[in-house]
Amino acid sequence: MSGYKTYRISELIAGDQADIPVKVKGWVRNKRESKNVIFISLNDGSTIKNLQVVGDPQIFAEHLTRLINTGCSLAVSGNLQASQGQGQAVELQAEEIELLGEADPEMYPLQPKKHSLEFLREIAHLRPRSQTFGAVFRVRHALIYAVHTFFHERGFYNIHTPIITGSDAEGAGEMFRVTTLDPQRPPLTEQSEVDHSQDFFGRETNLTVSGQLEAEVAAQALGLVYTFGPTFRAENSNTSRHLAEFWMIEPEMAFYDLNDNMDLAEDFLKYLTSYALEHCQDDLAFLDKRNQEEENQKPQHLRQEMTLIERLQFVSDNKFERVTYTEAIEILRNSKPHKKKKFQFLIEGWGTDLQSEHERYLVEKHFKKPVILFDYPKEIKSFYMRMNEDGKTVAAMDVLFPGIGEVIGGSQREERLQQLKDRMKEMNVPEQELWWYLELRKFGTVPHSGFGLGFERLVQFVTGMTNIRDVIPFPRTPGNAEF
RNA sequence: UCCUCCUUAGCUCAGUUGGUUAGAGCGGCUGACUGUUAAUCAGUAGGUCCUUGGUUCGAGUCCAAGAGGAGGAGCCA
């Protein structure tokens, strides 16, 4: 049993080591069998590539080889050698095979055939074993690592903001209640309302919809900070771009104005895409091929002009287009689909929010590159965004990507106490709940900026997966929390 | 939440104007095969036609309600 050193498959398939005794452990993807030779494709999750295990049926008991089926787990020891066949540099000549766990082929759903993403969603506990989801989750990990690396290299500090929050004044969407009160018989006040003073925290609490306000606190002490944590929205959104539980990255920078903010956002997205291009080549090559096959199913006019890898290179190599909201409205008014009345929603004039189709036109047809829109009308943006000199617009910005739309939303924050109070009054945000947020403007206030990036949307863009439920291991959507 | 479409074998789907015993491909199983690459060849099993109710001599097919899924919209990240 000794003499075999254990390796992960990623360490072996390059082919720079051969004629050494090795032991590998993994799951069988496929078995091909003839009278004199058995081939097993073994995968251990370390790479999308499989290690080819070659076995001589004479030296293994038939009851063992019968149990080696798609999905079972094995430990295989033997000699790693140059492959006699095409398609791989090295293969493992098996000397010992240990069956760790069987997988009955009559029952195991993940058989070697094409499966739809919808079907794989129904077996979320097994789908990471498929090629597609293995690739997606490895890329997801690489991007997580790249996020931390990017900020660390630039002197940012990671801040853990609370997941349970006391304020519900942010207006970022419906919230999930957090309570330990008996749902059948909660304590009531004299006005027969639920008495939250008897709740665990002595007040009403919710799951966070954003760590921004807490990140602002940290930025005004540590200078440059970022959060990267789970975020919850109880909206009844049923789209390929929304989750009830998702991960958000929110940098917050003291002494940054809106231009500094846009520069950082652009650098960040370029860094992340080029990091993936450099470090996830095998997985991206697979996803690129998958994506092209998917595109070929579509009618010609709906197909993407660029392949996945071309799109990633395009983002990392080209400067994003920056236009004000006001300029964008002008472009849309002069556009062909507007003049020919092809838009489903008319451009109603300055002051209304842009519809998805308008954003898509700007990104995919007009500029044909990522677009940063900035200086939005104050009416359609949040209370904490800094009022511009014109009194009509705020220093907000959105980064729009082809295919997925808004990937980043950010702003320069209102650092002037009186202006902030005025805005809160206008938008009916209760001052007393955010007293601590206002105190930041009372004591040593500074200009500062930040943005939020929906991590899953980024993973969608980088992997080319069209449904957000396929880029997070356990998606939470309305009516679905099975796994 | 709104609009549109879908639900038939383990999976992906076909199923004609409502008419006898519901089909294919993939996957599984059995066998063959001297090196395969989601192998190849031959054979074979496998069905609550989403659920409930209705129309009809007769419903996978038509109608209604419900459940589940997908795409789009709104909300946003």
Set down the secondary structure blueprint.
Blueprint: E1 5-6, H1 9-12, E2 20-33, E3 38-43, E4 51-55, H2 62-67, E5 73-82, E6 90-101, H3 117-122, H4 131-153, E7 157-158, E8 164-165, E9 177-178, E10 205-207, H5 212-222, E11 224-232, E12 245-254, H6 258-279, H7 281-297, H8 308-317, E13 321-324, H9 325-333, H10 336-339, H11 356-366, E14 371-377, E15 393-401, E16 405-413, H12 417-426, H13 435-442, E17 448-454, H14 455-463
Parallel strand pairs: 1-2, 4-6, 7-11, 13-14
Antiparallel strand pairs: 2-3, 2-5, 3-4, 5-6, 8-10, 9-10, 11-12, 12-17, 14-15, 15-16, 16-17
Helix pairs in contact: 4-6, 4-7, 6-8
This protein binds one RNA strand of 77 nucleotides through strand 2, strand 3, helix 3, strand 16 and strand 17.
Structural class category = alpha+beta
- For this structure, the CATH topology of the largest domain is BirA Bifunctional Protein, domain 2
Determine and state the CATH class of the largest domain: Alpha Beta
E-strand count: 17
The CATH architecture of the largest domain can be named as 2-Layer Sandwich
Number of helices: 14
Name of the CATH homologous superfamily of the largest domain: Bira Bifunctional Protein, Domain 2
**Major sheet summary line:** 8 strands, mixed
Tally of distinct domains? 2
Terminal Cα separation, in Å?
39 Å
Mean pLDDT: 92
